[in-house]
Amino acid sequence: EVQLAESAGGLAQAGGSLRLGCTAPGITSADYARCWVRQAPGKEREGISCVNNNGRHSWYANSVKGRFTTSRDNANTVYLQMDSLKPEDTAVYYCNANRVGNDYWGQGTQVTVSS
Question: How far is CA 73 from CA 29, 57, 68, in A?
Answer without folding.
Answer: 10, 14, 17
